[in-house]
Amino acid sequence: MSFQFFFFFSSLLVLGLAFFVSIVEPSRTISPIVIDSTPPGPGLCALSVTFHGYKCQEFEVRTEDGYILSMQRIPEGRLGGGGTGGTKQPVLLQHGVLVDGMTWLLNSPDQSLAFILADAGFDVWIGNTRGTRFSRKHASLDASRPEYWNWSWDELAAYDLPATFDFIYRQTGQPIDYVGHSMGTLVALASLSHGQITNLKSVALLSPVAYLSHMNTAIGVLAAQAFVGEITTFFGLSEFNPKEKTIINFLHTLCANPNIDCYDLMSSFTGKNCCLNASTVDVFLRNEPQSTSTKNMVHLAQTVRDGVLSKYDYGADFNVEHYGQRKPPVYNLTNIPKDLPIFISYGGQDALADVRDVLLLLDSLKLHDGDKLEVQFVKDYAHADFIMGVTAKEIVYNALVAFFKRQ
After folding, report:
1. 3 falls within a domain
2. What local confidence, expressed as pLDDT, does residue 183 receive?
3. Are 272 and 349 in contact (CB under 8 A)?
4. CA–CA separation, 3 and 6 (whole Å)
5. What is the CATH number of the domain that holds 104?
6. Would you say 56 and 303 are in contact if contact means Cβ atoms under 8 Å apart?
7. Which of 107, 266, 272, 297 could pair covalently with 112 via S-S, beta carbons 3.0-4.6 A apart?
8. Residue segments in the chain with a per-residue pLDDT below the cut of 50
């Protein structure tokens, strides 16, 4: 197994995007699963929402660069109420990388954030990033072609998020609350720093990732030292499919490393999650992970390596061609409007959104209006607890809902 392959896959894992293998044991045989590129059958509403007794609507959103994104809407709680039509407050939930909108629906209705918000009177919208199972359409490109996958989180910040906000605003006529987890926080911060999101009311960032240089796993240290510039060429892969046979086989190679505990991979990469339910993990494993672009994974690995939040690094010569300068432009987080209400919740056991990196993010927001920034530190939480933890409602979501209602 090549040195570059090891480091690239390590960067994938250390970003917390591989907890789908958390219950794999080294001795087990892992059967490859192939993602079908044909249009999906039932949508997310039918799979995870309506059978719980909630109304749910499916929408498609077209981005400026032609990608067609799936979006779901839960317009009211199971008992209705909380306002009707345009009087309800819209909130957008945006997942991280290698997962999709199912992220917000994994637990029971009284433990899943999407349902909790709907029952609290919000008009809930769920985003699905390009390339995931419900968002594989394009105006002119086919997902089976490399051209479809020529994007990173730069494009998610520049195109996907603005298109999603514009669509919701046209439907509701109201400014929008936003909740992001992991990469969902990264794209929001990048987009906000460039003034690309309009009609925004407030933001909640769960396990925020912006600076990634303090990951505290052995794999993280290796990934941070990786030379990632040639990985796309080396792989010859445009779509990064975590269920593809080559990567699954590599798990066995990884598990042969004595420093890797394959009996608890989730803790190895996300930190020690305190509050996960085994049945929730089973639901997760039946639905995730999802594809992303290899270019996106390289960009994330560059963020780990370089310790700055910047655009995709094509290398000095090609950066001149793309950006007119030898280094990629940096996202300046001090450009985020100082009067924007922001709620940040992070965990003391999170190996991905490490406490030191979150403190760097908070330092970049030090001039933010004091009454507009609310920070919550949860000592026992790791990365996955914020979206899958059975105690998240009492510890995080109640505070988040109260924050939104105060704005």
Report:
1. no
2. 93
3. yes
4. 5
5. 3.40.50.1820
6. no
7. 107
8. 1-39, 82-84, 221-234, 263, 267
pLDDT digits (tens, 9 = 90+) for 241-261: 777 765 556 555 555 556 655
Place of tokens 């280094």: 327
* Residue 201, in any domain of the structure: yes
Residue 19, domain member (yes or no): no
What is the rounded distance in angstroms from the CA atom of residue 178 to the CA atom of residue 117? 12
Q: Is the peptide bond before 289 cis (omega within 30 degrees of 0)?
A: yes
Instruction: List active site positions.
Output: 182, 350, 383
Backbone angles phi, psi at 355, to 5 degrees: -55, -40
- DSSP string of 221-273, one letter each residue: HHHHT---TTHHHHHT-SEE-TTSHHHHHHHHHHHTSTT--TTSHHHHHH---
Distance CA 126, CA 197 (A): 17
Amino acid identity for residue 41 in this structure: G
Residue with tokens 């490399």: 146
4: number of Cβ within 10 Å: 17
Residue type, 338: K
Q: Quote the domain boundaries for residue 124.
A: 44-405
Q: Tokens 């509050």, residue?
A: 275
Residue 51, number of CB atoms within 10 A of its CB: 10
Q: How far apart are CA 149 and CA 184, in angstroms?
A: 19
Q: Indicate the number of domains in the chain.
A: 1
Structure tokens at 148: 């479809």
